[in-house]
Specification:
140 residues, mainly alpha, Topoisomerase I, Chain A, domain 4, elongated
């Protein structure tokens, strides 16, 4: 019995240390990218929902930066998700976003530029607290 346990442990150690073929490594990397991207999308969604829940005037830039920061922290997949997903409603980036802000929501190009600056700041690893308004509850 001990011999079989030793053989099993040795086999496990050899398999764990063996170099995997390139296709296997590519599949593992792709899986990690997808996992990071899904996690990044969750981070962006959580920041969006927190922004809606907080309903705090002037805090939108903070939540933009925080969502992008959390997503990009996950790795390449999260950074990709942070770049692709845009506010509001987590829709893919398009001219529709600018149309929404300028015509429907009443916010103009200046606010759009400020949002994009906060997004880029968070994605680049900048501290989201730079945009945190005074008085925002510590919960966020």
């Amino acid at each position: 019995m001990r011999l079989w346990v030793c053989i099993a442990l040795l086999s496990l150690a050899l398999c764990a240390s063996a170099n995997r073929p390139a296709p296997y490594r590519a599949v593992v990397r792709a899986g990690q990218f997808v996992r990071d991207a899904a996690g990044g999308a969750r981070d962006m969604y959580r920041a969006y929902m927190d922004m809606r829940e907080a309903n705090y005037k002037g805090a939108d830039k903070y939540f933009h930066a925080r969502g992008n920061y959390d997503a990009a922290k996950r790795g390449p997949g999260g950074a990709w998700a942070a770049k692709v997903i845009r506010w509001p409603f987590l829709l893919p980036h398009s001219d529709g976003r600018e149309l929404w802000q300028s015509r429907v929501s009443g916010r103009g190009a200046e606010d759009t530029r400020a949002d994009q600056e906060a997004n880029a700041w968070g994605r680049s690893g900048g501290d989201p607290n730079r945009y945190r308004p005074p008085g925002l509850p510590k919960k966020y």
